[in-house]
Amino acid sequence: MSQTLYNFKRIHPVPTSSDFVDIVLSRTQRKTPTVVHPGYSIGRIRQFYMRKVKYTQETFEEKLGLIISDFPQLDSVHPFYADLMNVLYDKDHYKLALGQINTAKNLITNVGKDYVRLLKFGDSLYRCKQLKKAAMGRMATIMKRQKDSLGYLEQVRMHLSRLPSIDTNTRTLLICGYPNVGKSSFMNKVTRADVEVQPYAFTTKSLFVGHMDYKYLRWQVLDTPGILDHELEERNTIEMQSITALAHLRAAVLFFIDLSEQCGYSIETQLSLFNSIKPLFGNRPTLLIMSKSDAKQLEDLPEETQNMIKEIENSGAAKLSRLSSYLDTGVMETRNMACELLLQYRVDTKLKGSKIKENLNKINLSMPKKRDSVQRPSFIPEAVIGKQRYDMNDPNRRILERDIEAMSGGAGEIDEDEERIIKLAKSIRTKKQILAQQSRLKNNVNRPKVTNKIRATKLTAQNFADKLANKDNLDTINNTASNLLSTSAKRKRSLSVANKGLGDELARMGTNSGAQFEQRAVSVSRSRVDAGLKNSSMLDTVMKKHAKVQRKSNLLAKRGESDRQILTKMPKHLFSGKRGNGSNDYR
Amino acid sequence: MPQNEYIEKSIKQHGRRLDHDERKRKREARQVHKDSQFAQKIHGLKAKIHNKKRHSEKIQMKKTIKMHEEKNANQKTGDAVPEGAVPAYLLDREGQQRAKILSNMIKQKRKEKAGKWDVPLPKVRGIAEDETFRVIKTGKRKSKSWKRMVTKATFIGEGFTRKPPKYERFIRPMALRYKKANVTHPELKATFQLPIISVKKNPQSPMYTQLGVLTKGTIIEVNVSELGLVTTGGKVVWGKYAQITNNPENDGCINAVLLV
Ligand SMILES: Nc1nc2c(ncn2[C@@H]2O[C@H](COP(=O)(O)OP(=O)(O)OP(=O)(O)O)[C@@H](O)[C@H]2O)c(=O)[nH]1
Ligand SMILES: [Mg+2]
């Protein structure tokens, strides 16, 4: 189920029509060039004014488009909100206003287009300017006619943004009943909504939402205005809000009746209301709640009335419950009962729905049978079984370096056996290096290509670690490492910085071959002077010969092959044909 | 009070601050001075707009004040001249009234004398040909210049078909063609958008008339069947003349006055 939460607070404010024109025109003034002279070429003048007209038109379109897209479409919102908006703002009026805005937008588009077309024939600055003025004037006139629509939409926006945000899909308790029967009092008891309670009818005039927790779930409680028992057509806006909520929300319905008749309506009328709006409840869980039980109980009523109420219960239309908000009796019981009923109802409807089959197919509870009688316990190594879990407070725990330090007198106090500590530090550092190398090899996504020769030696982090541990092998490691670094150019670049550190570290560890790792951090291309030459003596001869050849032309200051030169100033193939001179390099 | 009206709720629960009314009164009293400061400070276009707004506001204000005053003022008795025998010193008043009628009659006569072609715009500015026509160069080397484009608004009748472009001397661009005019009825003081039937006469030159050029002062024939005018004979009038009162090429529309 898609959870669509409507956020009507996001709608941008709708300016009045005169403000609208001011906003757009001043924006045009700010965002388009302002200086033009009659001496400019006519094309430039036309372009200047066309831009103004076009920009104004676009700004109007943008702003009007924003209004149209911001306001919710009655056909696409949840029917509850659609009906509520119909009740509060009148659907026809709302659609008409949005429709008019849309027409205005189209008209402005057409005016803009027309005048840009006319501007193409403008032959003087004066004429262009007049046309621009006429265009903007006509757009402004169109906007001026939208005065009423814009005013109405702004009112709707303000009201809409203050509407309580009702989630149409969650678990909801819906409180309804005659006016003054104690609906809001109950609401205040179960939630923190703080609804007004007064001893007269129609205290609550709009929908109120409160939230509560039950069984670690979030619940929504909806307090509605009171409804009287008459025809749907006679109902006013206040009552219609309740009816809308009753008609569209999948909620548990709590119908309140006041047995004490302190509300000013007899029990008979209240029950007849229940019967007349019963069709609206459908098969949703319904509770008939007798409020103000401190004032009068069901048992105190005359026999006939008691029978009427009992009949409703027996017919299965509703469950009975009683509560008193004054004495705080039955409030929680009623709430829990309603919540339970609704939860059950929701599960039932889900099971009845068509979608459930798809999901039920996916659920499989497997109950594996025993294959044979062989025991297959989980494997725990011997060494581990013997080990004890380290515990700070255990006197027989393993002795750590930290404990030794503490024993010898706190942080930094290493007196005895300095040699051991240094060795330990070294081993820790080596371990660290190995780990770093390991992760680097792992993380290197575009791993450099390693030549076959090296791959044969299988230089992995594990190997590297093994060899580091074995001091005799250090020389070979250095060799292979340097091999590895020099053979693959890519690797040389990516790892050079790190290698430098590594080299230092190795040097410090006592191997003098660290110098081999001294690489430059920045990549440098190889000099090509000695390319293809066997040795340095060959290079010398080549250089000498080169100098000798150049000596004469250098003396005469002649043009050499490295000097910049333009052989043909206007190549024929680029400058012939009908097109503008030299505008294209293909013909 | 709806649920989210927190400002009103707060006011209802806790009231306003104690000096709220005092502050409000003072703010209102200061507003006049603030407005005046503002009016003195602004300049340029904003000043123009502001002054215009203020001007209309003031007129409105004066009107309302006057209306209130009228209620209080003693109204003069309407017609002081008694009926029946009139004393000599009152005779001249009647004479005055008669004089008024006379002068009206004279005006009417003069109007009639002036002839049928007395139009709202008797004189128009001359328009040179090179203002109306733009020369279009043709030929492979763009050396020929016999073709013209009309840069004024034009009316082109229903059944017009273009000549082959090679022989077409005058081009009348689609963008500048008009089919409708906003015609004002001078007596009804109402404006209607009516379809143009034809161009009767362009005062500039007969050639313009032929081409259907619409400039200020041009007489056009409009279709008034929408207005439901009836001749003395009882027939519905559908074609009537009107004179163009604006420069269509500058305004992008055609405004005209019906000749009645
Ligand atoms: N004796 C008694 N009075 C109660 C109880 N609950 C509410 N009332 C009184 O009933 C009156 C109306 O209570 P509300 O909660 O405003 O009733 P409502 O149904 O919300 O009324 P509307 O919003 O006007 O429809 C108030 O004067 C409360 O004090 C109760 O349990 N016992
Ligand atoms: Mg209430």
UniProtKB/TrEMBL annotation, chain A:
One of its GO terms (molecular function) is GTP binding. GO terms for biological process: assembly of large subunit precursor of preribosome. One of its GO terms (cellular component) is nucleolus. It is found in: Nucleus, Nucleolus. Residues 558-587 are annotated as: Disordered. Pfam families: FeoB_N, NOG1, NOG1_N. InterPro entries: G_FEOB_dom, G_OBG, GTP-bd, NOG1, NOG1_N, NOG1_Rossman_fold_dom, P-loop_NTPase. It comes from Furculomyces boomerangus. Belongs to the TRAFAC class OBG-HflX-like GTPase superfamily. OBG GTPase family. NOG subfamily. Residues 171-343 form the OBG-type G domain. The lineage of its organism: Eukaryota, Fungi, Fungi incertae sedis, Zoopagomycota, Kickxellomycotina. Keywords: GTP-binding, Nucleotide-binding, Nucleus, Ribosome biogenesis. This is Nucleolar GTP-binding protein 1. PROSITE patterns: G_OBG (PS51710). Involved in the biogenesis of the 60S ribosomal subunit. It comes from the Eukaryota.
TrEMBL record, chain B:
The keyword Ion transport does not apply. One of its GO terms (cellular component) is nucleolus. Pfam families: Ribosomal_S8e. One of its GO terms (biological process) is ribosomal large subunit biogenesis. Residues 1-40 are annotated as: Disordered. It is found in: Nucleus, Nucleolus. InterPro entries: NSA2_fam, Ribosomal_Se8/biogenesis_NSA2. Transmembrane segments: none annotated. Its main location: nucleus. Keywords: Nucleus, Ribonucleoprotein, Ribosome biogenesis, rRNA processing. Residues 1-22 have a biased composition (Basic and acidic residues). It comes from the Eukaryota. Belongs to the eukaryotic ribosomal protein eS8 family. Ribosome biogenesis protein NSA2 subfamily. Involved in the biogenesis of the 60S ribosomal subunit. May play a part in the quality control of pre-60S particles. This is Ribosome biogenesis protein NSA2 homolog.
